[in-house]
Write a structure and sequence with these properties.
With 168 residues, the protein is mostly helical. 76% of the residues lie in helices and 0% in strands.
């Protein structure tokens, strides 16, 4: 190494300490990443965010996270010891579903459609979580981290769906 800090380049050391650092960082970042799932229902209940804005924000973020999670699986499939084309192809489903359902929520003309869209996003995140947690090719720490993140994200979307379906 040249002694410089290369923040945009991955480190070449792939030993156990690198995995521990990544696990810690992902745990903190994952926890922070739950805020946009939890905040819209809370802000709506506090009267600080109108219903339409809250559910569009929650749906858009869920779509973005589905794209991120699909990207994780696509990168893992493409950059692993052996390229896994099937996983690479399947990894395109979460971003497409997330975008489509988030767009449905944004353009929904009824509370039932908004609620259904948020439920659909919760289902998509749950399916992605199961896929990730059962993938033997992903690190153990990542698979274990996915469970609490998936539960909170899906729970928040379920709360959003319930609130969106409640007449105001």
């Amino acid at each position: 190494m040249d002694g410089a800090i290369h923040i945009l380049e991955p480190r070449s050391d792939s030993g156990p300490r690198a995995g521990v650092g990544a696990a810690r960082a992902m745990t903190v970042l994952g926890a922070l990443g739950l805020i946009p799932f939890v905040a819209p229902p809370l802000l709506f209940l506090a009267g600080l965010l109108p219903a339409g804005t809250a559910w569009i924000a929650q749906a858009a973020y869920a779509g973005a996270i589905l794209a991120f999670l699909g990207g994780v699986r696509a990168a893992q499939a493409a950059l692993g010891a052996r390229a896994d084309v099937a996983t690479l192809v399947i990894a395109m489903a979460p971003p497409i579903i997330g975008f489509g359902v988030a767009a449905l929520v944004a353009g929904a003309g009824s509370p039932a459609m908004v609620s259904g869209g948020l439920l659909g996003l919760a289902l998509a995140l749950a399916a992605q979580g199961v896929w990730d947690m059962t993938a033997q090719t992903l690190p153990d720490w990542y698979r274990k981290l996915r469970l609490p993140l998936t539960i909170v994200a899906c729970g928040s979307l379920l709360v959003g769906a319930l609130l969106a379906s409640t007449p105001t």
